[in-house]
Specification:
The protein is an alpha+beta fold. About 40% of the residues lie in helices and about 25% in strands. The protein contains 8 helices and 11 strands. The chain has helices at about 5-10, 20-30, 85-90, 110-115, 125-150, 155-170, 180-190, 195-205, and strands at about 30-35, 40-45, 50-55, 60-65, 70-80, 80-85, 100, 105-110, 175, 210, 215-220. It has a 4-stranded antiparallel beta sheet with strand order 1-8-3-6. The chain has a 4-stranded antiparallel beta sheet with strand order 2-7-4-5. A 3-stranded antiparallel beta sheet has the order 9-11-10. A hairpin with a 2-residue loop joins strand 10 and strand 11. Helix 7 crosses helix 8 (about 195-205). The longest helix has 26 residues, at about 125-150. The chain is elongated.
Length: about 220
C-alpha cells in the first residue's frame, strides 16, 4: 500500500481530507487491494457488488454482454477512476455489467456501506467522503450519458463523429489522442473493426478527420 499512497492522496474521493489522516481512514473503512492480469475478470455480471473499486494502476473496462455472445464497451476507465459505485449504492447490488482488467491493474477496494455510514469512532472525514462520492457518481453518469449519445446515432459515421467531438470537448482541442485502441473503439461503437477502419479512411478522404493510430485531428468539415 505504501507504494500507492501518493496516488491515493491525490484521488478526488479523498479531496479535502488531511493526508495525515489517510492511513487511519483506510483502516477504519476496511480497505483491501488486489492485482489483476490483463483480461482477468474483476466483477462478473450478476455478481453482488459490495465495494467501490479505485484503479491505482492500469485500465478497467465496463462491458455489457449481449444475448448473441458479443460485448459492448460502455465505459473505459484508467488510473484514478472509480468503478462499481453505481451498483454498490443501489437497492439491488447485482451488477448488470462485467468489469475486467484491460491491462495489468492494481485496485483498491472500499466497502460502500462503511463509506456511507459514519462509524462508531465518528471519524471527521466521513461527511467529506460522502460529498466526494456523490460528485464522482455524477461524473460517471455523465460518461454513461455520452455513451447513450453516441449509440443513439443511426450511422457508423455519425457515431464516430459524435465520439470524436466529445473527446475534443473534453480535451479542449481539435487535436487529441483517444484512450481506446481500434478494437476497443469498435466495441464502444458497436461495430466490427474492419467496418470501423473502412469508415475512418473514408472520413479522412472526405476531409472530416486526419488520424494516425489513436491520434486524431478534426477537420473543418466535421464541425
Amino acid at each position: 500500500m505504501k507504494s500507492y499512497l501518493k496516488e491515493i492522496k491525490q484521488h478526488p474521493l479523498f479531496a479535502g481530507i488531511n493526508p495525515e489522516d489517510l492511513s487511519a481512514m483506510l483502516d477504519c473503512l476496511g480497505y483491501y487491494t488486489r492485482s489483476y492480469k490483463k483480461g482477468e475478470i474483476i466483477i462478473l455480471s450478476e455478481e453482488t457488488v459490495k465495494c467501490v473499486g479505485i484503479i491505482l494502476r492500469g485500465k478497467v473496462h465496463m462491458v455489457k454482454e449481449n444475448d448473441d455472445g458479443t460485448q459492448t464497451l460502455l465505459v473505459h476507465m484508467h488510473q484514478g477512476e472509480l468503478f462499481g459505485e453505481t451498483f454498490a449504492c443501489g437497492s439491488n447490488r447485482s451488477s448488470r455489467v462485467t468489469f475486467w482488467a484491460a491491462s495489468s491493474s492494481h485496485v483498491l477496494f472500499l466497502p460502500f456501506y462503511k463509506i456511507l455510514h459514519i462509524c462508531t469512532n465518528a471519524c471527521i472525514f466521513h461527511h467529506r467522503l460522502v460529498e466526494n462520492m456523490v460528485r464522482l457518481l455524477c461524473d460517471k453518469n455523465v460518461q454513461l450519458m455520452e455513451k447513450v449519445e453516441v449509440s443513439s446515432r443511426r450511422t457508423l459515421r455519425d457515431k464516430i463523429i459524435t465520439y470524436l467531438r466529445l473527446q475534443a470537448e473534453r480535451q479542449r482541442t481539435t487535436t487529441f489522442t483517444i484512450p481506446l485502441g481500434r478494437t476497443e473503439l469498435a466495441e464502444y461503437l458497436c461495430a466490427d473493426r474492419s467496418s470501423l477502419s473502412r469508415e475512418l479512411k473514408k472520413m479522412e478522404e472526405d476531409g472530416l478527420i486526419s488520424y494516425h493510430k489513436n491520434h486524431f485531428i478534426l477537420g473543418e468539415k466535421s464541425s
